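[09:14] KT: can someone run the structure on this one? pasting the chain below
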Amino acid sequence: MKLEQMVSISEQLGRPYVPKGSHPVENGRYLIATNEIDRLFESICQWIDNRAPGAIVYGRPRLGKSKAIDYIMKILPDEYKKPSCL
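[09:31] RB: done, structure tokens below
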């Protein structure tokens, strides 16, 4: 099937056309907030609101600290409506 046909079918169904291999789940480029990430986000917002001079996020290896920080860096500017300085 040609690309134009596939796009047309997608539009008729009211769904976006996503080329094979470009979906975030296929290529591993997605971040999903978990309850723990939400808790960390709330803590970081409290640190910012209280003007804490610094903080440390610690835990055992391979538990998702870096992914949590990546996610929070993306949503934090929306919370404070300012450019991120992280």
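[09:33] KT: thanks! The chain has a mean pLDDT of 87.
[09:34] RB: yep, looked fine to me
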